[in-house]
Design goal:
About 50% of the residues lie in helices and about 10% in strands. The protein is of the alpha/beta class and about 725 residues long. The strands form four sheets. The chain has a seven-stranded parallel β-sheet with strand order 3-4-2-5-6-1-7, with helices on both faces. Strands 8-13-12-9-11-10 form a six-stranded parallel β-sheet, with helices on both faces. Helix 19 crosses helix 20, helix 24 packs across helix 25 and helix 24 packs across helix 27. Bound molecules: adenosine-5'-diphosphate and zinc ion.
């Protein structure tokens, strides 16, 4: 069988994701291969498909027992007979597994590095044909990685013994230094590396100023009833407190941190994985070694100390490809805390590096351009976008700059009059007329600025203060958090300069975005989810192993009525159909009869389901809807996103070779014919991929929205 056949038959997927096919071909040619892909993109298939094609055995070295168990269970659900050799199984199981390997009944072996290094195991493995040696989490080889393991170092030597085996390394670690180190340790050639993009398109990124974290968290959780998520906190104490508070508010939440006993940690993790507990509140220690695919949100209660940790932590959500939300509560006081810890480090170089990393993290939080730009560029990947449509900056409806001059003057003068020694919280207390102890004892209630900013909420003042810092109108003392004026602030106070900014109303950020993927029948979805849980409990496996959330969401969208239609759902292969698909099919049919669902089905081209499931649904959905006759305004309402974002999606649609109807666009354009002509000339000279140079040149006569629109008009004429 060819790779694509196996993909369809065993895994139930229609198409390879980017790079998978190339990687598989490379491995099948027996060329050493280093695979660098972010979590959730699909590394495992890259070695599992070759393993099913090779005659001999594929050995997979993995550092964590939980990861091995997860992989083997998933493969068994697909009808693939994979086995484990590690310290967690019984002696008789161990013997049985060895037998299966020697007889060729099992073609994939998961093993811990220390077991593989044992003489007696090697003797057995060297007596049979081994075609592939896969090293999962390959960054464990490198001392520069975040998870160095000494036993991994010896794998480089070991490979020499398995002459005929191609060696495959897999990791989600992005730093070039670690990548080089892996290649050197394993003796790989330079050309062996495949790097996938680090942009995880299905993660919705948001940062808001932390004002009242518990209330903000509760407001956020309202959108995620019964859906799994992780909340990361700075300290163990914070974890315990928050977990208790959430329980008091009726959520099922469990703590996870290094202060708990092994068995408690294990139990809490297990409950979470099996959907028996909704939320885990954790310190950074949580997440390694879990493959749960239906984590719908990650909330950072505190600032992560660098972008690597942040990226890793948010990466634990949305592995199934459905939209998942990542919210960070940003507070300047956290910067101080982290800085304090950095100062405790003995080594000067370490301190300098840690400070740099922290700075990048803060820059990301303060970003006024798409958040993906600072994030992805940080990992050395070139990334540019006008509008990703999946971060708070790009989604903000607040397109227009607001004149903040008067409020800025109030704030700056309050800073000045309180002596430039207080932090934002106190300054805001003064502006809003608080009777706090600190205000009264300093006699700040006697100042002329006392209470002048009452009309504006504390939250908004917080956001304004952040803008003033970003614009260098204020300097924040790194150590104490106090605010000082700068040379630039004088001009504002003397009314010589105005201040403009886009201010986002915080509450707006909690509104869930409407997503085509989630346009499923929620009632049916719940019925299927319940059945899934029941089936999972009977076997004591996590529910996502039966079908992912995405798979049942698609079932509840397309209402398959027979085997063929069911197997058209992405993620339903042959064995899964026999084991579970039939049961789900019966439930869906019953549901359709009960609710008389027939008409809806007719409109759906069922043979297209799988293909569509793997295309990026958002821009296709939007493009299709536009072609079906909806106006741009209709689309803004339907998807609840701003016009610029809709237009960016349409642009992407065009770039992928789809046609767009042309009527209705021209009349939306507000610019004169003359300007339009000039802009078109620019497009023909400069191309259409970058709007910024054109905007910079013509920003007095056109806005970005105009340019987005003109670009589409230009391309459709
Ligand atoms: P990683 O190891 O990179 O974190 P996995 O190998 O666990 O990612 O894959 C993530 C998810 O994507 C899994 O549910 C997997 O089955 C699914 N997947 C992988 N390749 C494809 C594909 N070509 N089409 C559809 N789904 C895929
Ligand atoms: Zn963005």
């Amino acid at each position: 069988m060819t790779p694509i056949h196996i993909l369809k038959k065993v895994f139930g997927y229609e198409k390879f994701r980017p790079l998978q096919q190339e990687i598989i071909d490379h491995i099948l040619e027996k060329k050493d291969t280093l695979v660098i892909m972010p979590t959730g993109v699909g590394k495992s298939i890259c070695y599992q498909i070759p393993a099913l094609i090779f005659d001999g055995l594929t050995i997979v070295v993995s550092p964590l027992i939980s990861l091995m168990t997860d992989q083997v269970q998933q493969l068994r659900q697909l009808g693939v007979n994979a086995v484990i050799l590690n310290s967690a199984i019984t002696t008789s199981e161990y013997q049985l597994n060895l037998k299966k390997i020697v007889s060729g009944e099992s073609k994939i072996l998961y093993i811990a590095p220390e077991s593989l290094l044992k003489e007696e195991i090697q003797t057995i493995l060297l007596s049979i044909k081994v075609d592939c040696l896969t090293i999962d989490e390959a960054h464990c080889i490198s001392e520069w990685g975040h998870d160095f393991r000494p036993e991994y170092r010896q794998l480089g030597q070991l490979r020499k013994k398995f002459n005929d085996a191609v060696v495959v390394g897999l990791t989600a670690t992005a730093t070039p230094r670690v990548q080089d180190d892996i290649q050197k340790s394993l003796n790989f050639s330079k050309s062996s590396k495949f790097i996938a993009s680090f942009n995880r398109e299905n993660l919705l990124l948001r940062v808001i100023i932390r004002t009242d974290p518990l209330q903000q968290t509760l407001a956020f959780l309202k959108n995620y009833e019964n859906q799994s998520g992780i909340i990361y906190c700075f300290s163990r104490k914070q974890v315990d407190t928050l977990a208790e508070q959430l329980n008091a508010y009726g959520y099922s939440a469990r703590p996870y941190h290094a202060g708990l006993s092994d068995s408690e940690r294990h139990k809490n993790q297990d409950l979470f994985i099996k959907d028996k507990v909704q939320i885990v509140v954790a310190t950074i220690a949580f997440g390694m070694g879990i493959n749960k695919s239906n984590v719908r949100f990650v909330l950072h209660y505190n600032l992560p100390k660098n972008l690597e940790s942040y990226y890793q932590e948010i990466g634990r959500s949305g592995r199934d490809g459905l939209t998942s939300e990542c919210l960070l509560l940003f507070s300047y006081s956290d910067i101080n805390k982290i800085q304090y810890f950095i100062e405790q480090k003995e080594n000067e170089l370490e301190r300098t590096v840690a400070k740099k990393h922290l700075q990048a993290m803060v820059k990301f939080c303060e970003s006024t351009v798409c958040r993906r730009i600072p994030l992805i560029n940080y990992f050395g990947e070139e990334f540019n976008t006008e509008n990703c449509g999946m971060c708070d900056v790009c989604l903000s409806k607040q397109n227009e700059l607001q004149d903040l001059t008067i409020k800025a003057q109030m704030f700056l003068s309050a800073v000045k009059r309180t002596g430039e020694i207080f932090g934002a919280t106190h300054v805001i207390d003064v502006l809003t007329g608080s009777k706090s102890e600190k205000v009264l004892s300093n006699k700040h209630n006697k100042l002329s600025v006392y209470g002048v900013g009452k009309e504006t909420s504390k939250k908004e003042w917080m956001v304004i203060s952040q803008h003033l810092i970003n614009k260098s109108l204020l300097i924040r003392d790194e150590e104490f958090g106090s605010l000082r004026l700068t040379e630039k602030s004088a001009a504002v106070l003397q009314k010589k300069e105005k201040v403009f900014a886009k201010i986002q109303v915080q509450e707006e950020s909690f509104k869930k975005i409407k997503e085509p993927d989630q346009a499923y029948d929620t009632k049916l979805f719940e019925i299927l989810r319940k059945k899934r849980k029941e089936l999972a409990e009977a076997q004591d496996i996590p529910p996502y192993m039966i079908f992912s959330d995405k798979v049942i969401a698609h079932m509840a969208t397309y209402f398959p009525q027979n085997q063929k239609e069911m197997m058209n759902i992405s993620g339903v292969g042959e064995v899964k159909f026999q084991q579970y698909g039939k049961i789900f099919l019966a439930l869906i049919k019953l549901y359709c009869v009960e609710y008389k669902i027939t008409g809806q089905r007719e409109q759906i081209k069922l043979q297209k389901i799988k293909e569509r499931a793997e295309t990026k649904p958002r821009h296709i959905e939007i493009g299709d809807a536009f072609n079906d006759g909806l106006s741009i305004n209709d689309l803004v309402k339907k998807f609840d996103i701003k016009q610029g974002t809709i237009l960016s999606h349409l642009y992407k649609y065009l770039l992928e070779g789809f046609d767009l109807r042309v009527d209705g666009l021209q009349k939306l354009s507000k610019v004169t014919q003359d300007v339009q002509k000039k802009i078109f000339t620019e497009f023909s000279r400069e191309g259409t991929d970058k709007l910024k140079p054109i905007f910079d040149k013509y920003n007095d006569v056109v806005s970005y929205d105009d340019l987005h629109l003109l670009r589409i008009i230009y391309l459709t004429h």
